[in-house]
Design goal:
Number of helices: 11
Number of domains: 2
CATH class of the largest domain: Alpha Beta
CATH architecture of the largest domain: Alpha-Beta Barrel
Order of helices and strands: EHEHEHEHEHEEHEHEHEEHHEEEEEH
Distance between the termini: 27 Å
Shape: elongated
Bound molecules: pyridoxal-5'-phosphate
Oligomer: single chain
């Protein structure tokens, strides 16, 4: 198969879905897939078997949810547009507004259930770029700006304050959320605890999450939703690429037919070091290389890795855990080819779901 391509393993993916379903069965929470983190049409029918629906960031994701996933569609955006709100409304079971101004502008055009996103003003998000409760955050209404007298038609509250975090962090957020809005929560039909719950990561305290949700539901008698993205696609597959050339500049640098910037953007934005199959940290193994992208960006670097044997042109490099927040963020920067989308089905068959080429670049430029 020609590189680059993302290879998602159905077996691993189903394992994540099974765990999320268990959380749902044992706590009564409804779990929605956050399409912003994972939107792979080839696995949509599997998602629908286990989860209650999708959470969407606007019109395009809502249309995609309707076309491929089924189930409930919840849509939240920092701001909705006049020429899109009616279509979003016709697709969405829940619409969550980010401000009272938006609520008042569009309240009468919403067909489904209306919610407001609030900012619980507590978050231990590891990186400021991904901190929804950071200084001057535009994401959610703070308690100071919350108008209890303007809740006509509002049936739910939504918060999203976590990023790759454990149930302990959720517990802290819940304390703050309840201390600020318990009166409103008591009048709601539903509460959405957002995403950022790292449920499928090894060591996540699943029992604690279940207890937190059950206790909350006992206190308020409301429907509770969570909307993970990363936890759905977590460790379900890899990005497969090839070595194109090896250059020298005080170290060996392998140029790959891929790009950190275009295909693994969080390695730069977050930033973090992706695991490479059969490779170690620099100098841990005998041969160390910098792995770098085939673009003009000087910082288009995946990182430094060591290998047991020297790399050669044509060798395959496999970056682990590259299914979430990659495919959905890909660009054609420098005209670089988008990685194809491939699924390793449980019966061992490889299914190429999407093949990309010049057409994507041409259509977008
Ligand atoms: C409102 C909202 N919900 C859900 C998510 C999904 O978060 P995660 O993929 O970290 O679970 C995000 C991510 O940014 C979000 O902004």
């Amino acid at each position: 198969m020609n590189t680059p391509y993302y290879l998602c393993e159905e077996k691993l993916f189903r394992r994540n879905l099974e765990l999320l379903k268990r959380v749902s069965d044992e706590s009564g929470v409804k779990v929605l897939l956050a399409l912003k983190g994972f939107a792979f049409s080839g696995l949509a029918s599997l998602v629908s078997e286990y989860l209650s629906g999708c959470t969407c960031s606007g019109l395009h994701e809502a249309k995609f949810a309707k076309e491929y996933f089924g189930g409930e569609i919840h849509t939240y955006a920092p701001a909705f547009k006049d020429n899109e709100i009616d279509e979003i409304s016709s697709l969405s079971h829940h619409i969550v507004f980010n401000s009272f101004a938006q609520l008042n502008r569009y309240r009468d055009r919403v067909k489904g259930s209306i919610g407001l996103r609030v900012n619980p003003e507590v978050s231990s998000s590891p990186v400021e770029l991904y901190n929804p409760c950071g200084l001057y955050s535009r994401l959610g209404i703070t308690s100071k700006n919350f108008n209890q007298d303007d809740l006509e038609g509002v049936e739910g509250l939504h918060f999203h304050a976590l990023c790759e975090q454990d149930a302990d962090a959720l517990e802290e957020v819940l304390k703050s959320f309840e201390s600020k809005w318990s009166d409103v929560i008591s009048t709601c039909k539903w509460i959405n605890f957002g995403g950022g719950h790292h449920i499928t990561k090894k060591g996540y305290d699943v029992e604690k999450l279940i207890k937190l949700i059950k206790d909350f539901k006992k206190r308020y008698d409301v429907e509770v939703y969570i909307e993970p993205g990363e936890a759905v696609g977590w460790q379900t597959g890899a990005l497969h690429v090839s070595v194109l050339d090896i250059v020298e500049n005080d170290m060996k640098i392998a140029i790959l037919d891929s790009s950190a910037e275009a295909h693994m953007p969080d390695t730069i934005a977050m930033p973090y070091r992706a695991e490479v199959r059969d490779a170690g940290k620099p100098h841990e193994k005998k041969y160390t290389y910098r792995l770098a992208g085939n673009t003009c960006l000087a910082g288009d670097i995946m990182g430094d890795y060591s290998f047991d044997t020297p790399l050669h042109v044509g060798d395959k490099i496999i970056f682990e855990d590259q299914i979430h927040y990659t495919i959905v963020k890909n660009t054609t920067f420098n005209g670089i080819k988008l990685p194809d989308l491939v699924i390793l089905r449980e019966n061992g068959e490889l299914e190429v779901v999407k093949k990309f080429g010049y057409e994507e670049y041409r259509r977008r430029n």
